[in-house]
Design brief:
alpha/beta, Sigma_54_int_dom_CS, Sigma_54_int, 4 domains, Helicase, Ruva Protein, domain 3, globular, 5-stranded parallel beta sheet, binds adenosine-5'-triphosphate, Rossmann fold, 16 strands
Length: 452
């Protein structure tokens, strides 16, 4: 726990109800912390301005104003003080508003003392020198300077300072997972794990044990106790990719775990407290999934506290050349090669291309071009842009000889997979459906055929 000049951290508790104030005070004192009290918004502002506060916990509804005023005061003055709000049961709207205004977390009444302790411990880590790593330019691993990407990066910076759930939207390959990793790596959770989960790739019958873990003997074949994703991400960030693919039964269990901040392993009788930050992503329209009854509205509201939109590459055309250079430099060094130049015709075609698969597609195009080029320069033909999407067309690869048979079959399979991916704008779940194979099988085939 952080200490200033070896003194215990000082917490400001803001509440106009003496009973609750006292309960919180006792809990914090037992944790070895110093506590100051304020009985309303005005007193809180004055105490904050006097300095020396490391963390602020404020009630939402008070006689002389709202906890939001306290949050906004801290933000407006630029104080580096984490603030959490305590809201009335069921008033999630208030909590969301506070998170948007800069609160790092919230507690719902009746306040569970265990949750209070977890929140305080996690907040005070914000103060640790290692945890409060300021964002440096080296952390900004998104290449690009267009207004679209700058806007996303600014929001990522703000989100890294909060504990609020984040919902990342954007087309396939637009950098949603990269954004989630960046939020985690700039947050005070960066010394703890980042656990990415592809919700569409887990067989439904294994979901519960994969997410929550299982005790020995919980099911046939469970010969040891196992942790799930939640336990693995404890203290860190759980990234739920393709969250729209979660079956409804699992959505109920996930909502419960998020709300209660507790999970129970399969076959266990007791629950354990879990502290994870949830970031989720999908390329689907989650609001539409709610309308169609495929996604629970209550879970949607829980996850969609703050939305981060990752722009498609075609909306940041001015960045295409810079991103292409950055990717080429990385790919060339991975292959132990010198970085080849991008010929003017190739650059021109890339700038005009629509990139249905976004940066991932650009990566694939360049990886293939690197293998095809003469080592010095990448020309238009090396890019093999698909005919329908590029202005400058090149003939698609001919199927060629039928022998050896395996090579011929691999080429046919690759063509079919690429066509399905192209049709679905690189949505692997949909592509697997078109191809009549499971998501896993498609992933395996893509790996085998080096379609990354
Ligand atoms: N601006 C950028 N600069 C450099 N690399 C980027 C940029 N945006 C994305 N990438 C890279 O593009 C690839 C695809 O990104 P990522 O996997 O984050 O996309 P995604 O939206 O999560 O994809 P999917 O929807 O398929 O899960 C990754 O290798 C990522 O590092």
């Amino acid at each position: 726990m952080s200490k200033r000049n070896n003194k215990p951290p000082r917490i400001l508790v803001v509440d106009d109800e003496p009973d609750l104030r006292e309960l919180v005070e006792l809990t914090l004192l037992k944790m070895g912390l110093d506590v100051d009290m304020a009985d309303g918004v005005a007193a809180a502002k004055a105490r904050l301005d006097a300095g020396g506060i490391d963390l602020c916990l404020t009630d939402m509804r008070m006689g002389d104003g709202s906890g939001l005023d306290v949050v906004r005061h801290i933000e407006a003055r630029g104080y580096d003080i984490p603030v959490a709000v305590i809201t009335a049961y069921g008033s999630l709207d208030n909590a969301v508003e506070a998170l948007k205004a800069g609160a790092f977390d919230y507690l719902a009444k009746p306040v569970s003392l265990e949750q209070l302790r977890t929140l305080v411990r996690s907040a005070l880590e914000l103060d640790k020198p290692a945890g409060s790593k300021p964002a440096t330019s080296a952390d900004r691993t998104f290449i690009g300077d267009s207004p679209a990407i700058r806007h996303a990066l600014q929001l990522i910076d703000r989100l890294a300072k909060s504990q609020a759930p984040v919902y990342i939207t954007g087309e396939s390959g637009s950098g949603k997972e990269r954004a989630a990793r960046l939020i985690h790596s700039q947050s005070n959770r960066n010394s703890q794990p980042f656990v990415p989960v592809n919700c569409g790739a887990i067989p439904e019958n294994l979901m519960e044990s994969e997410f929550f873990g299982s005790k020995k003997g919980a099911y046939t074949g469970a010969d040891t106790e196992r942790d799930g994703f939640f336990q693995a991400a404890h203290g860190g960030t759980l990234f739920l990719d393709e969250v729209a693919d979660l079956p409804l039964a699992m959505q109920v269990k996930l909502l419960r775990a998020i709300q209660e901040k507790h999970v129970r392993k399969l076959g266990d009788t007791k629950e354990t407290a879990i502290d994870v930050r949830i970031i989720c992503a999908t390329h689907q329209n989650l609001a539409k999934c709610v309308d169609e009854g495929r996604f629970r509205q209550d879970l949607y509201y829980r996850l969609n506290v703050i939305e981060l939109k990752m722009p498609p590459l075609r909306e940041m055309r001015e960045d295409v050349a810079g991103i292409a250079h950055g990717l080429l430099a990385r790919l060339a060094s991975q292959n132990g090669m010198d970085e080849p130049k991008l010929g003017p015709d190739a650059l021109q075609a890339l700038a005009a291309y629509d990139f249905p698969g976004n940066v991932r597609e650009l990566e694939n195009i360049l990886e293939r071009a690197l293998a095809l080029c003469d080592g010095k320069q990448i020309r238009l033909a090396d890019l093999q842009l698909s005919r329908s999407d590029s202005d400058e067309s090149t003939p698609s690869a001919a199927i060629g000889d039928k022998y050896p048979l395996q090579d011929y079959l691999d080429r046919m399979e690759k063509e079919a997979i690429l066509e399905a991916l192209d049709k679905t704008r690189f949505n692997r779940t949909q592509a697997a459906k078109i191809l009549g194979v499971t998501f896993r099988s498609l992933r395996y085939r893509m790996e085998r055929l080096s379609i990354s």
